[in-house]
């Protein structure tokens, strides 16, 4: 799998990486053109690093969606960019309806 970022966390001379599954819902799936994909990120990365990786991969199509979305990291719904990633992150844009 191709790395999406150039930086890595280095520990004892070894680069530690972590694969994060990202699932896109509603408008996020439309903007990214997929429902899920994997990102190879440095272990201990936070939500801001994931957003940068998604932007790098999908470009301007996802800018507005990422700005308004909430993120489900594990069982925690957040918008805090300093949230440490887990194995899976769901990108949840605002849903319309009643």
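^ structure tokens above, recovered residues below v
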């Amino acid at each position: 799998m191709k790395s999406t970022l150039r930086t890595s966390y280095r520990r004892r001379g070894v680069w530690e990486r972590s694969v994060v599954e990202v699932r896109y819902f509603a408008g996020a799936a439309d903007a990214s053109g997929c429902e899920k994909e994997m990102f190879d990120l440095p272990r201990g990365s936070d939500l801001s690093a994931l957003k940068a990786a998604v932007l790098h991969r999908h470009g301007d199509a996802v800018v507005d969606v990422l700005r308004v979305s909430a993120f489900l990291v594990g069982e925690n719904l957040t918008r805090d960019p300093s949230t440490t990633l887990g194995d899976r992150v769901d990108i949840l844009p605002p849903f319309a309806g009643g």
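Residues 1-9 have pLDDT under 50 and may be disordered.
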